[in-house]
Amino acid sequence: MSAKRVLSGIQPTSDSFHLGNYLGAVKQWVDLQDGHDAFYCIVDLHALTGEIEPALLRKRTLASAAQLISLGISPEKSTLFVQSQVPQHNQLGWLMECMAGFGEASRMTQFKDKSAKGGSDSARVGLFTYPMLQAADILLYQANLVPVGEDQRQHIELTRDLAGRFNTRFGQTFTIPENFILKTAAKIQDLQDPSAKMSKSSGSAAGVLELMDTPESNAKKIKSAATDAGREVKFDEKEKPGISNLLTIHSALSGKTIPALEAEFDGKGYGDFKGAVAEVVVEYFRPIRAKAIDLLSDEKHLLDILHDGATKARVVASQTLEKAYENLGIVK
Ligand code: TYM
Predict the structure, then answer these.
(1) Do residues 261 and 324 share a domain?
(2) Where is L-tryptophan annotated to bind (predicted)?
């Protein structure tokens, strides 16, 4: 049996990925590239649904590639590419828009949240059709597994529905993908407001740990993270959301289990524990940040990697698109 296909994507909407992106998604991308046929995509077209700043988009697309490689995505093992360099994404995206109901697209919570924030006049049509482009990203590669954080669950569900509908109506065309969402770390919370997820668009910079930020700044953010009542280091998401979030982060990076961490910090206060979390985070990302900065100094090398990835991706994407067109009766 051939290796299972994996596909996932990340938006180049910030100078740096944050810790939620890494623990919820990219860390799994790295693990899955062994033993799977993995496609990882920097989704620049999706990034156009937010504020567009041309110089920043270019810079952030390259910074995303550099960070993915420094975090462990190997261009030899995985196909790493930029979405816009594979035009089949737009082409299949249109077909998905023609499969999706207006009502089901209107129920997407990310669209509802984002459009509610800015008001319906500032929300663009691209934000509404975003999930159908995402479905195309996944289905083009006949992906079996889609490693993502919890916030993408509904988009993967929609993708499965659209693929199933297409297959039933027009004949077997797409693999129905499954999400790959961790039980822990699928939702890393904001350090200042542990009731909200850590997010690029979050209100407070102090609550978001950026991988490319300086070690000093990240250590400071962790040490001033909001904590909870009491002084015991115990995992209890309801009563102690701040400490539970920090326990999840420590555990995911150090490999120690949460009960082992609770025992280690038994009788010690929040201050000692936060100091330890800061050290784990800073030491984990110190070499990764240095490598990303180094990779960014050779733009041509990064572009070559991405062009090679897109060349490989286009081969698979064009086969799927051709099959979909044929099944729809589109004349060749
Ligand atoms: P994006 O760019 O917002 O985030 C990239 C990945 O990071 C995960 N993530 C988190 N995980 C845990 N805790 C958090 N606080 C946290 N914040 C973000 C996201 O779940 C995601 O896996 N729509 C996607 C991009 C996309 C895509 C795709 C993903 C486009 N096409 C095809 C998979 C397959 C998005 O906005 O991710």
Answers:
(1) no
(2) 137
